[in-house]
Design brief:
The protein is an alpha+beta fold. The protein has ten helices and 20 strands. It has helices spanning about 15-20, 35-40, 55-65, 85-90, 100-110, 110-120, 130-135, 220-240, 275-280, 350-370; strands at about 5-10, 25-30, 45, 50, 55, 75, 125-130, 145, 155-160, 170, 175-185, 190-200, 210-215, 240-250, 255-260, 295-300, 305-310, 320, 330-335, 340-345. The protein has an eight-stranded antiparallel beta sheet with strand order 15-14-11-12-13-16-20-18.
Length: about 375
């Protein structure tokens, strides 16, 4: 019988690994944390090195080549490869990649994506290609954002007035609620999973740092239909497969499309196990989605200061992605502004789930400060 092992690579692979394990797959993970949760789920966990929030390609290849790639079902990926489609192509030359092709990833994470939106008359903020001269002549620089192509997690977004305003393009700032549509595609059609509200945890240098999301938010039916229609158009144009996420800003009346994430996204884990739907979508088939009742919220708790926690610290049941101490260490160390863990909360409505997850995070944060060595 063929080995039922999946390789999963993402900044944080825990949620995807758990979903695959629940379907009976063995899992090998590559991520930036190799946290305690993932270590319990996966047969092997590889901790990757990141350089300025981007994958260290040499480090990845060195670890990846220690595996016998003929023994695996395939390779699933998350946000690690947004700015490394050539690395994804290298992987595809060695084993099946279960998801969108490197070519799709490359085209979606380039300026041509906005040209595609323009050609389809899909509403999106005005963009300008970035040059120092253009920043200098902006009449109202506070109304513009500087972004890097292929950035993830909001770490690539700065206001044009920021001193460190390096990037690839300017995008007009739209005030409103950041939302996304999670959908499954089969190469021709898109199937909506749910609409989500995204959270940010801003710092002085990172005003749009991603901090999680709440799933299954209540929006007007016309908004969900519009997002689903956009997803359908993009699926047809690009041949999208598997789980994808369409990000936008809702200004109270309209949704402005910001970007498409053609791979497993953070909102995947806000819904009942979608791994089967993802794998079947990659194979060109849409299947009935699991029943979804209520809303789940996930909030990344960042350290406001450097922490040293006892190795026997008792984590509450409502968290995941908890850090693991080095084998030789007598404490768990978390640097300032690094993720501590992910806080979970579920409720009947998205509003209640959001309120609950923030309350839980505040309670845990106080506890962490009390025990900090």
């Amino acid at each position: 019988m063929k080995n039922k092992t999946l390789i999963i690579a993402a900044v944080s692979a825990t949620g995807y690994a758990q979903a695959a394990a629940n379907l009976g797959f063995d899992v090998i993970t590559f991520d930036a944390f190799a946290d305690a949760d993932t270590s319990l789920i996966a047969k092997i966990t590889f901790k990757l090195n990141l350089i300025e929030h981007s994958i260290d390609i040499d480090d990845f290849k060195q670890q990846f080549l220690t595996l016998n790639h003929e023994d695996f079902v395939g390779f699933l990926y998350g946000s690690l490869f947004d700015n490394a489609p050539d690395l994804l192509a290298w992987i595809a030359s060695k084993m099946p990649v279960l998801g969108n092709t490197p070519q799709v990833l490359k085209s979606v994470k380039g300026l041509e994506f906005f040209q595609l939106l323009q050609s389809m008359n899909i509403l999106h903020p005005e963009i300008k290609q970035l040059s120092d001269d253009e920043i200098q002549v902006l009449a109202h620089p506070e109304q513009w954002l500087v972004k890097r192509l292929s950035g993830t997690g909001g770490l690539h977004v700065k206001v044009a007035t920021c001193k460190d305003n390096r990037g690839d393009y300017l995008q007009k700032k739209i005030e409103g609620m950041p939302i996304s549509l999670l959908f499954v595609a089969d190469g021709k059609h898109a199937q909506a999973v749910g609409v989500n509200q995204q959270f940010v945890s801003p710092t002085k240098d990172l005003p749009y740092r991603f901090a999680g999301a709440v799933g299954h938010i209540e929006v007007a039916e016309k908004i969900k239909l519009y997002l689903t229609d956009v997803a359908e158009q993009l699926t047809t144009a690009l041949g999208l497969r598997g789980c994808n996420s369409l990000d936008g800003v809702f200004d109270g009346e309209r949704v402005w499309i910001l970007e498409l994430n053609p791979r497993l996204s953070a909102t995947f884990s806000l819904y009942p196990n979608l791994m089967h739907a993802h794998l079947q979508g990659c194979a060109g088939e849409l299947v009935e989605l699991p029943q979804n009742d209520g809303s789940l919220a996930q909030l990344i708790l960042y350290a406001n200061q450097s922490l040293q926690l006892p190795v026997n610290f008792t984590w509450p049941e409502y968290v995941m992605n908890v850090p693991e101490a080095d084998k030789s260490a007598s404490y768990i160390s978390v640097l300032q502004d690094e993720p501590v863990c992910t806080v979970l909360a579920a409720s009947e409505t998205a509003i209640a789930a959001k309120q609950l997850v923030y309350e839980k995070a505040l309670t845990l944060e106080k506890r962490l400060l009390e025990v900090n060595g």
